Amino acid sequence: MSENELIRLKPRRIRVVCWASAAALLVVFSLVATSLSGSTGDGYGTFQRGDQLAMVGLGVLGALGILLFTRPRVEADARGVRVRNVLGSYELPWEVVRGVRFDRGAPWASLELHDDDLLPMVALQAADKETAVEGVRALRRLHQAHLATLAGGRAAG
Q1: pLDDT tens-place string over residues 107-151
Q2: What are phi and psi of 79, to 5 degrees?
Q3: Do residues 102 and 29 make contact, with C-beta atoms less than 8 angstroms apart?
Q4: Residue 11's Cα: distance from chain center in Å?
Q5: CA distances from 92 to 6, 30, 38, 61, 88 (A)
Q6: DSSP letters of 25-73?
Q7: Which of 40, 123, 125, 138 has the most CB within a 10 Å radius?
């Protein structure tokens, strides 16, 4: 492990699914918007241009909501780890991390902290299989390198 090594991890499958879903949702809402014309049924109202624009706007908002799930990522280097989940971001030095966990059956990996908290890392998802496992191994190597540096510093001191 070099001192300057930077690990960047993003989920793969969920990104593809989210982009495809967002595009499909936008197309569906646009098609619905183009079909909104004429009277509203038995009532006296009629669909206006604003109604069509509102449907497209709802499609855009829905697509943006879906794309929030492409936000997760993890970056780590010799100093610490930065975790960005769907909502919320964390920057932690390796000193507060006890270990990197990826329990069998868990949907994603997590960081075990010294205060007994678990911080989920949504970017390392079980659906990504070997890619996620390699990411966890890389994070563990960085964590072990940090622990070795600490042990070496104590022995020299």
Answers
A1: 999 999 999 899 999 999 999 999 999 999 999 999 998 888 877
A2: -80, -35
A3: no
A4: 7
A5: 15, 43, 58, 32, 13
A6: HHHHHHHHHHH--SB-SSSS-B--HHHHHHHHHHHHHHHHHHHGGG--E
A7: 123
Q: Do 53 and 44 touch, CB atoms closer than 8 A?
A: no
pLDDT tens for each residue of 54-110: 999 999 999 999 999 999 999 999 899 999 999 999 999 999 999 999 999 999 999
| One-letter amino acid of 16 | V
Residues of 113-123 as b/e, b for ≥16 C-beta within 10 angstroms?
eeeeeebbbbb
On the question of pLDDT at 155 being above 70, the answer is no
DSSP label at residue 88: -
Q: Nearest Cα to 142, choosing from 87, 78, 84?
A: 78
For 48, the token pair is: 């206006």
Q: What is the dihedral of CA 83, 121, 10, 28, to 10 degrees?
A: -110
| C-alpha dihedral, 25 to 27 to 31 to 34, nearest 10° | 110
Spatial CA neighbour of 132 closest among 14, 1, 5: 14
